């Protein structure tokens, strides 16, 4: 029997974070944010890639660490979890004693919320 190996994946982690943030913070209960999640994740990735190397590398390392953390509890990396499990991990990072964990989530939340509201303006013809 062949074991399936799940790799840590930075870009997939950003996509999972964006989707969970959209579900938690941005979406109208009557509107599924999924159609926009990939577009917003690409926006977040472009912003990360535009950062200076020393800052961007730290954000990338923390993101990879976020993907790695759930392995001990759920047996899967962050990007392979369902939204309820991702909420548990994100809540733990929001309450973490180490500020970089909290700041990483704030960074992604700010970019996701900005992209979501920009999307709404473009959709409504106001932007």
Structural class: mainly alpha
The H/E string reads HHHHHH
- Give the low-pLDDT segments: 121-127
Cα distance spanning the termini: 54 Å
Determine the number of helices (DSSP H or I, runs of at least 4 residues). 6
Helix fraction bin = over 70%
Overall outline:
globular
Total number of domains = 1
User: Mind telling me the C-alpha Rg?
Assistant: 15 Å
Mean pLDDT equals 86
Strand content: under 5%
Largest sheet: none
Q: Using DSSP, what is the number of strands?
A: 0
Overview of the molecule:
- There is one protein chain.
- By secondary structure, this protein is mainly α.
- It has one domain (10-23, 42-120).
- Helices cover 72% and strands 0% of the residues.
- The chain has six helices and no strands.
- It has helices at 10-26, 34-49, 53-68, 71-74, 83-94, 99-124.
- The chain is globular and about 35 Å long.
- The N and C termini lie far apart (54 Å).
- Residues 121-127 have low confidence and may be disordered.
What is the element layout, followed by pairings?
Blueprint: H1 10-26, H2 34-49, H3 53-68, H4 71-74, H5 83-94, H6 99-124
Summed up, what is this model?
The chain contains 6 helices and no strands. The chain has one domain (10-23, 42-120). The chain has 127 residues and is mostly helical.
Task: Please describe the structure with a list of short key phrases separated by commas or semicolons.
single chain, 127 residues, mainly alpha, 72% helix, disordered C terminus
